[in-house]
Amino acid sequence: MLTVSYITNRIFNSRTYILSDPNSNIVWLVDCGDVDRIVESIGEKQVAGVLLTHVHFDHIYGLKELMAKYPKVLVYTNGFGAEALKSPKQNLSHYHSDYNDVSIDAPENIFILKEGDSFELFGYTVQIYETPGHSPSCLTFIVAGLAFTGDAYIPGVKVFTGFPHSNRKQAASSLDKILRLTSNCSIMPGHSVQ
Ligand SMILES: [Zn+2]
Q: Which CATH number fits domain 3-189: 3.90.360.10, 3.20.20.80, 1.10.101.10, 3.60.15.10?
């Protein structure tokens, strides 16, 4: 059985989702912010993998600490995301001088996804869709009627396309695609909105 909970992270209220199964001692994450809160939530369970909705620093800033604690963790992103993980300018940590450089360079931990890929998680199939626009690294993950849309679709919020590498036209067609694909899904967006 797939169980989902989330943490609202300290930086920009981004969300980290925790995907677990009561009969398994591993969990998977969607995005990675406050590692202390993740650990508090999962106890003795191990983090096996992280699905990145996109590689902007507020969605990845915990990865370094997470990988120090769980060295075998797999990080799933697309080809652009794999490059952006290494580059403080592309993952935007460069532009936030209050924060550390959150970049990571760990090719052995990175698993590259593309449109149409799928894999099994706790007996459910996770479908991968590329939904660029907010960032070229934007992926939407659909599993068990849940759609993890990151910042490509936050209900009630206009998709932000003012970042380097954002593309407004792509964002609009990705939004159409997401709405079409997720009409029967619960939306799990990338931020908690007050
Ligand atoms: Zn973002």
A: 3.60.15.10
The 8 Å CB, 24+ separation contacts for 9-13 are 9/33, 9/34, 9/37, 9/58, 9/62, 10/34, 11/57, 11/58, 11/61, 11/99, 12/58, 12/191, 13/191, 13/192, 13/193, 13/194
Q: Which residues surround ligand 1, an ion (CB under 5 A)?
A: 56, 151
- How far, in Å, from the CA of 183 to the mean position of ligand 1? 23
4-63: per-residue pLDDT in tens?
999 999 999 999 999 999 999 999 999 999 999 999 999 999 999 999 999 999 999 999
Question: Residue 97: what pLDDT?
Answer: 64
* CA 24 / ligand 1 centre spacing (Å): 31
Instruction: Give me the helices (H) in the chain, please.
Output: 35-42, 57-60, 63-69, 79-84, 168-181
